[in-house]
Amino acid sequence: MARLTRGECWAHWTYDEQQWRTADTIEAARRRRGNLSAHLMIGLGAVIAVIGLVWDDPAAATFGWIGGFCVVVGLAVVAVAPLGGSGLPARRERTGELRISAIGVLRRPGRYAAFAPTGPLTAVTLVAGPPMRVVFTTTTSGSDGATQQHQLADLLVPVGREEEARALVQRFNAEVVAR
Prior knowledge:
By secondary structure, the protein is α+β, with helices and mostly antiparallel strands. 46% of the residues lie in helices and 25% in strands. A hairpin with a 3-residue loop joins strand 3 (104-108) and strand 4.
């Protein structure tokens, strides 16, 4: 991270106030999509809890407890999610910047997000927009062989940096994804 703050990065993008708001909105939408499983857990847990409460059998109380536990865990994940990442500090500032390297993104204000913890990058794509964005994706495999894609970052391309974004995507696909 020290190298990133010194400027050793593949791209350094700065945003004016309007672009920073748009970039933050795009990132917030990505985080919400990432919390979809927690929302599903809350819904499924609520259904199981209601079945446990309505079913007239003492053994059904276990359903109620399991369902309630799922609801509580899901609510905790949803409640804690905004505290992580760069959401709150980024929303407080009028402008911001991104430094993008082969191993992650430094968002200021905000935090550093490394690509490695979730697995290797499997795709870096340029979404034409509007607005134009660079999307970083990884694929994880479960023990049963099933795979799931995760968006690690969804970054707004600042106006006037479109060619740089195209070159950045090509570089990631040649040097990082192809490995």
